[in-house]
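User: Can you write out an input/output pair for a complex, sequences first and structure second?

Assistant: Here is one pair. Inputs:
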Amino acid sequence: MIVKGEHAFSGRPELVWALLLDPEVIAKAMPGTRELALTAPNRYEGRMVVTIGPVTAAEFALVIMLEELAPPRRFVMRVDGNGRFGFTRGTARVELAANDGGTMMRYEADLQVGGKIAAVGQRLLDVVSRTLLRAGLAALGKELEHRLGDGDRP
Amino acid sequence: MTESPSWLGRRVPRNEDARLLTGRALFVDDVNPPGTLHVAFFRSDHAHALIRGIELGTARRRPGVVAAYTAADLGEFWQPGQLLVAPVPVEGAVFHAVTQGPLARGKVCCAGEALAMVVAESRYLAEDALADIQVDLEPLPAVGDLEAALAPGAPVIHQGLGGNLAARARQRKGDYEAARAAAHRVIARRFRYDRGVSGAIENRGIVAAWDPRAEELTVWDTTQAPIPIRNGLARVLGLRESQVRVIAPFIGGGFGPKIMMHYPEELLVPWAARRLGATVKWIEDRQESFFATTQERLQIHDAELAVAADGKILGVRDRFLHDTGAYDPYGLTIPINTQCTLLGLYDVPCYDSEFTVVFTNRPIVTPVRGAGRQHGVFVMERLLDFAARELGLDPVEIRRRNLLTPDRFPHDHGILFQDSAPLIYDSGNYAPLLERAAERVEYQRFKRETQPAARAGGRRLGIGIVSYVEGTGIGPYEGARVTIEPSGTVRVATGVGTQGQGHFTTFAQIVAEVLGVEVGRVEVVTGDTREFGWGSGTFASRGIVVAGTACHEAACRVRAKAVALAAEILGVAAEEVELASAGARVRGAPQRRIGLGELARRANPLRGAVRPGTEPGLEATAYFGPDRGSTAAGVHAMVVEVDPETALVAIRRYVVVHDCGRVINPAIVDGQIQGGVAHGIGNAFYEALAWDENGQLLNASFMDYLLPTALDVPTVEIVHLETPSPLNPLGVKGVGEAGAIPTAAAFAQAVEDALAGTGLEILEAPLSPNRLFELLQALPGAAR
């Protein structure tokens, strides 16, 4: 499953960068995340609970690793989630570019989903992932607004 | 023999229905002894992965969990499964046997392969404990596409083989190249026939009970082959065969996958029962069955038909790929069936067929109702349709011109069949099948009036008419024991398992006919190794042919005993005695009679002397093994209506004219055909497994995997024709798979006919409304 798109933030790339690498913020940006902690440099571990159609409250142990970091322009995010109801693995490339005083984020993720969530939730995966993404981006935007409110507004 | 009409050929109501309809029939899940422990399996989510580690500590500590095992805990018990069917000895054939162990060790080769087993006080607890298990799997690229699997550099599933080639075999007769050179036209196409599940309403299940006092293991199993299961369990558990009793009670559908010997669960549950000294139970859930029960039937054919200007077949060449899944325990059975069945009812002078069997990261492939025959029929019938179109012939006419004529039987095709014997059709009379089907479906009138009238009114009707053969009734043998009890009840015990075929009635009819009793007085026991311990199982449409004949032979021996004793008691010569109305009587003097129950009592004296060599009671056992299979045949005709905008297809009529030799019970044969057609319709237009590129199954539930419903399956109009088989005394042939074999071919022809003029060619099965819509959109000039 390929998920790609772009999203405009109102803050500068440096600010968005800091936002994206903050475990607390990532947890907010990934709805259903119950815990997320920085366990080693650029390695985050935690838990996530999602519902996909008939598979309700599927819990995943989550490992996120950030690689190829080139602040504040791009990074690669590897996600590995495993749980009773299946797994998700994937790589997301995220690029940030200054855009009219704000930042344009472009992302492209290649996600593999397997196990029960793929077997019975397949028809809903696309919708669920888009819904999660939308909610996540909204949460990021809100967080950014909040930080900008603290005096970082350009 | 009697003045009452024969029991054979009569629509006798089924002996088993009272039990089934009132809920008194025993199924495996009904077996619930107190204290039963329950099993859940931890299955791989990945289709192809290395196993780095499995952690069971947390699961084992969960309250209510009795035990948990991985492959490492099985010790010496872990062995690769047995090869069930030795490969057919085709000259020059290559076959690499790779079978599955009871729990994956080192590597996972398909999604759903079991990695660990949990035994707990309830299934709920066992399932909860699965969440405690931590596995460390290193995913590998998965192989699914058959051509990519064989390409250089493809991920290799079984490292020792160096590639994914499982087998290759070529069978030939005549000189195809010469036939091709002489042909008026050569019709060449690529065909694809994809995978589905068998969809039995009852999933698999096993209950195993170890009795430490008797030192006996009793296993209730949804198997089609209880006797080989017993023998195998005794072997792997180090028990005597007499210490193991396997009972295959009523089973809600077999269709082939339940013949597997042995599934991992079938070994592990009895093993755990013995190890724990307990009763252990596992019932497969529907999700599991999509992964853990065997499937069929992906093949890709590159086939060509060489025809003369008059439509006569000069030769066929076929090269095909067969997907065997992650392992190949069933030898070459399916592709050999395909290779043989392609020849159909036709006179094919030259044939050159080679198949290549490919390992993939998919569930194991073993026969599912039809067992490769579908593909052969689909390829041949489609090629004939395209040839007819090119030659300007009617589809019925091109078939008529190529049928084997009655003087050609027995007909030796010059190649080997799945039982390793030459493919020889024992008997057949094919032209009447085609004529009766055309007549019954009103083919001429449909083409002349119905179809044009519908078209004029904006409706797209189409007709399809195709033929098939079904190789049935293969050996090696089955047996039966027939006993007349002092109550007058006749008891029949045979080793084949029963999954809805009506054995309790057809076997009873055969025995009732010989012994002159009511069918309702004959009690049949099947599938209990303690009742009857010799035989191989229910497969290849062989029950009536092989076990039915054994019942007949045993009944004849009992009759001889009964007649001899009655003659002595009645003071007449044996030739003077006949069996009728549940007794023995003097021919022409029916008042001089003795009841069968009384005879049975007299045959078992408690005092006095008997003559040397006397066997007590009225009982006999007999076995039957045919030289080779008997070949049934038939023609299916279908009328469909297609909505060209939505690509939905409704089946308006379905006619089957078939010949399975002598029919013992037309109602039961009708049921087999109706059920087979339902299976076939699913396989033609609804059921298809969808996989992603990583070997993940994307529609593993009946929400997304569509079985046809009663609304999609018309009542089949059935005509029985009878050409008795010379290979058994009853003249019977099998019919278990007939309904399912040619359905997709008939469907394709009918849909194309409905959409005639669009240039649509259907080269694949199963279709779906979606897929048909895509095909229509892809046609040149299609409205977009």
